[in-house]
Amino acid sequence: TFSACRFPSRTIQSGMHRRFLFFIAQERGRTIIYPNRPDEKLLDSITSALRRISDLSVTECTLNDCASQAWEKYQLQNRKDLDRTSDEQERSRLNSSPNQAIKLAMLFSLSSWAVKGDLTWDGIIDEDMLGLAIDLVDHAIKSAALLDTIANRQRIEEKADYVLAVIQHDFLGSLEDDGWIRLTMSQLTKRFCANPSRVGSTTTTELY
Predict the structure, then answer these.
(1) CA pair distance 108, 200, nearest whole angstrom
(2) Which DSSP string do the residues of the chain spell out, in sequence order?
(3) Nearest 10 degrees: Cα torsion 96, 99, 100, 103
(4) How far is 13 from 116, CA to CA, in rounded Å?
(5) Distance between CA atoms of residues 51 and 190, nearest Å
């Protein structure tokens, strides 16, 4: 389920965000009744190409000039994104994203070299491979944020129903001629967020 995919334990959740990228689908992409037999020639061509990576004696990577400029820009934007948010889950993902992006860029570059069949591996990551890696990590961060929203949707809907029911009962005397009950933020905060430090209590962020 969406909720289980978020790993409820905060400690585990933080670790998962550092180690994994999240991708989300809200509907089934296709239905496979029984898998087709794999194309042995195609599979062999892929595995044979990737096998070249295991034979490398040097796997050190470096960025070319254009990639270095793109990497600096990405790192600076990452720091800005960290400064603008106080959400622990989002900060955990943002803290991990540069490391994930550079690892993916290395994997993309190595895989491309292996499949193309180039004679020598120079270890240089260009801006195209780095850009692909950054785009993938950014997409995963957005997917994780969407997962948070979906997983919290039922809980939010239930709490909203409760808030509306309490308002209709406790503030019935404030019902105006047009059928609306108008309350100030101070009134709502006092009624629903009286004990924000208590575990499970509604916070002003959740309420508004």
Answers:
(1) 44
(2) -HHHHT-SSHHHHHHHHHH------SS-----SSPPPP-HHHHHHHHHHHHHHHT-S----EE-HHHHHHHHHHHHHHHHHHHH---HHHHHHHHHHHHHHHHHHHHHHHHHHHHHT-S----EE-HHHHHHHHHHHHHHHHHHHHHHHHHHHHHHHHHHHHHHHHHHHHTGGGB-TTS-B---HHHHHHHH-S-TTSTTPPPHHHH-
(3) -170
(4) 38
(5) 65
Euclidean distance between CA atoms 124 and 105, whole angstroms: 10
Q: What is the pLDDT of residues 36-81, one digit of tens each?
A: 888 899 989 888 888 888 888 777 899 999 999 999 999 999 999 9
Stronger pLDDT, 163 or 197, i.e. the higher one: 163
- Tell which residue, 65, 66, 80, 74, has the closest CA to residue 100: 74
How many other C-beta atoms lie within 10 A of the C-beta of residue 146?
Answer: 14
Q: Are 148 and 89 in contact (CB under 8 A)?
A: yes
Instruction: Output the pTM of the full model.
Output: 0.65
- Looking at residue 131, its amino acid is G
CA gap 182, 199 in Å, rounded:
29
